[in-house]
From TrEMBL, chain A:
Domain ABC transmembrane type-1: 98-301
Alphabetical keyword list: Cell membrane, Membrane, Transmembrane, Transmembrane helix, Transport
Protein name: Glutathione transport system permease protein GsiC
Family stated for the protein in its record: Belongs to the binding-protein-dependent transport system permease family.
Transmembrane segments: 12-40, 102-125, 137-158, 178-194, 232-258, 278-304
Organism: Mycoplana dimorpha
Alphabetical GO biological process terms: transmembrane transport
From TrEMBL, chain B:
Species assigned in the record: Mycoplana dimorpha
Any Pfam family matching the protein: ABC_tran
Membrane topology note: Peripheral membrane protein
PANTHER family: DIPEPTIDE TRANSPORT ATP-BINDING PROTEIN DPPD, OLIGOPEPTIDE TRANSPORT ATP-BINDING PROTEIN APPD
An annotated Gene Ontology molecular function: ATP binding
Presence of keyword Translocase: no
GO biological process: peptide transport; transmembrane transport
Stated name of the protein: Peptide/nickel transport system ATP-binding protein
ABC transporter domain segment(s): 8-256
SMART domains for this protein: AAA
Length: 311, 302
């Protein structure tokens, strides 16, 4: 198990290197430059002198190869460069936002798991029941509802009408500020989890070994606890992992709506003004997040399913 | 005259699809004496598995019992509450299924899966139950039972898994073991071993067996009496020797006639396989006749 974990963790390193290279290549060939975006207001051409000065200042006049070497050597020292706009180290910018993003993603996921998994489970145990029907209709609605609209609705109801919760802002990380954005962000994974859990449990219930369990004279509750739960967990963990990974990206809309200082909005803002170092750094961090989640999922798999360690 | 252990009387099972009930078992009656091995043969879809599941009380929607009685030690299983039925199931009546590959939980050690029996029916703690599970594995002649108990099903061969199933089914020393094609999924050499194991263990412990198979050879070598099922009816029943020597029912004759025989070849060096439908004349009339031989032990009473 330990060896498996170690090997799985080491696999992250080459992936990160490849991704870093890809990011660099992509952003050296995309059209448009930070300098141009800073000066162009769409009416007049930018002042060429100013452009040249800025380009030189930012080191964008150096040959591609040289820039690449600098980028890689800096990266090896965990230096993600300096923002074109704010002239702050990118790592600091990300650092400021990372915690808020993690908070939001984790809170959303916890909410989704705590509500979605039990609902899916109960729905599967009583297919066709009122609970099942309501859950599945709810899940479809949850999946098809635009997030910003849901967010606005939540704001309107819980912040404006009921005045229970603050409508936006980070509020120095208070739990109250976290609730509305987290719940809004959590609705999609919740709906997905409820559905996959239900499908997964139904699948397990049809398995031959469940018939065996019944033939032993086990009560329904024991069958579920001893034989269904663990087997259904495999599918649930997959879904949680996939959702968790993409949550940071999905969070952009929510971050904008609730003025939440997350990494998603940092990325979008930086792309808009071609602040390449920040874009590169943010993407790298998001990729790293994906990889860590994936590794965690694989390790959990191996812990649940004895067949995986063997390969 | 001893009382039968299992006495199935006029069992009817129907499948409710929409608001129509389709008959699946039309009329199944048979008796199994304590310690007796009873064989059930018949073509695919004749209702052998449904019969065994009905006895176990494991019929799932849309199937349900539509009539008859299933007397076990004189008590009608159909009248028992769910709870009473659970106490019997696995404990007094146990079952082995056809597919050893999927009949065990892949995420749980086989030792634990056997141990569950002792926890469920004998109120043992897990530690003691695990020890008893090792003994149970030893009793089905699994080598290294200590180590094997910690194995997961995927680490075992089909034959070993079926032994685990047998150990599990016999764990609580049931009075009746139902074996629904327990060897069909295994290769031939392993089949013979597993068969012998079931036969010997049940004989040792005085466990009665309801043995279901397509394979007439298997039935002939295992069972004292045989029932032949056709299309939801038990159409003929007799002592094994008598039935094979003198099949009375047209369907049974067809079934036996369709058997390939070793050593009987035509002049071309090949044996023609006979299609059962070329032997029996009219399938629609088959369920109208019954040949239930009186049991010798009962002194000729039908
Ligand atoms: N869930 C079900 N719904 C409807 N019909 C069913 C169901 N299960 C079984 N049947 C029908 O009941 C009949 C008997 O099935 P059963 O499985 O008992 O046959 P069998 O004799 O065990 O055959 P095999 O030798 O293939 O195992 C079949 O015609 C089958 O179509
Ligand atoms: Mg069958």
């Amino acid at each position: 198990m330990l060896r498996f974990a170690l090997r799985r963790n080491l696999q992250i390193v080459p992936t990160v290197i490849v991704v870093a290279l890809l990011i660099f290549v992509i952003f050296s060939v995309v059209p448009g430059s930070f300098a141009a975006s800073l000066f162009a207001d769409g009416k007049r051409a930018a002042d060429p002198q100013m452009m040249a000065r800025l380009t030189q200042e930012l080191g964008l006049d150096k040959p591609l190869m040289e820039r690449f070497v600098t980028y890689v050597t800096d990266l090896a020292r965990f230096d993600l460069g300096t923002s074109f706009r704010t002239r702050q180290p990118v790592i600091d910018l990300i650092n400021d936002r990372m915690w808020a993003s993690l908070q939001l993603a984790i809170a959303a996921m916890v909410f989704a798991v705590l509500v979605g998994v039990p609902l899916g489970f109960l729905a599967a145990l009583r297919p066709g029941s009122v609970l099942d029907t309501v859950t599945m209709i709810g899940a479809v609605s949850g999946l098809s509802m635009p997030q910003f609209w849901l967010g606005l609705l939540m704001m309107y109801v819980f912040a404006l009408q009921l005045n229970w919760l603050p409508s936006f802002g980070y509020g120095d990380g208070s739990l109250q500020n976290l609730i509305l954005p987290a719940v809004t962000l959590g609705v999609t994974p919740l709906a997905l989890l409820a559905r996959t859990t239900r499908a997964g449990v139904l699948d397990v219930l049809n398995a031959d070994f469940i018939r065996t369990a019944h033939s032993k004279g086990m009560s329904e509750a024991k069958v579920v606890r001893w034989h269904v739960a663990r087997n259904a967990l495999v599918l649930i963990v997959t879904t949680v992992g996939l959702q968790f990974g993409s949550l940071i990206g999905q969070a952009v809309v929510i971050e904008k709506l609730f003025a939440w200082p997350g990494i998603g909005s940092l990325l979008v803002d930086s792309v808009a003004i071609r602040d390449i170092p920040v874009v590169q750094g943010t993407i790298l961090v998001i990729v790293l997040w994906f990889l860590i989640i994936n590794t965690a999922v694989d390790l959990i798999y191996a812990a649940i399913d004895p067949r995986i360690k063997q390969e | 005259m001893t009382a039968p252990l299992l006495d199935v009387r006029g069992l009817k099972v129907a499948a409710r699809l929409g608001d129509r009930a389709h008959p699946i078992l039309k009329e199944v009656s048979f008796q199994i004496m304590p310690g007796e091995a009873y064989g059930l043969v018949g073509e695919s879809g004749s209702g052998k598995s449904v019969t065994s599941l009905a006895v176990m009380g494991l019929l799932k929607k849309p199937l349900r019992v539509a009539g008859g009685e299933i007397l076990f030690k004189g008590q009608d299983l159909l009248q028992l509450s769910k709870r009473e039925m659970r106490r019997l199931r696995g404990n007094r009546v146990a079952m082995i299924f056809q597919e050893p590959m999927t009949a065990l939980n892949p995420l749980s050690t086989v030792g634990r899966q056997i141990a569950e029996m002792f926890v469920l029916h004998q109120g043992k703690g897990w530690d003691e139950a695990q020890r008893l599970a090792v003994d149970a594995l030893a009793s089905v002649r699994v080598p290294n039972p200590d180590r094997r108990a910690r194995n997961f099903p995927h680490q075992m061969s089909g034959g070993l898994r079926q032994r685990v199933m047998i150990a599990m089914a016999l764990a609580c020393n049931p009075d009746l073991l139902i074996a629904d094609e327990p060897t069909t999924a295994l290769d031939v050499t392993v089949q013979a071993e597993v068969l012998r194991l079931i036969k010997e263990l049940c004989a040792e412990r005085g466990t009665a067996v309801l043995f279901i198979s397509h394979d007439l050879g298997v039935i002939a070598s295992t069972c004292q009496r045989v029932g032949v099922m056709y299309s939801g009816c038990l159409v003929e029943e007799n002592e094994t020797q008598a039935l094979f020597g003198d099949p009375r029912h047209e369907y049974t004759r067809g079934l036996l006639g369709a058997l390939p025989r070793l050593g009987s070849r035509s002049q071309h060096g090949r044996q023609r396989l006979v299609d059962i439908d070329s032997i029996i004349s009219d399938r629609s009339k088959l369920t109208e006749t019954r040949f239930i031989a009186p049991r010798a032990a009962e002194g000729g009473q039908p």
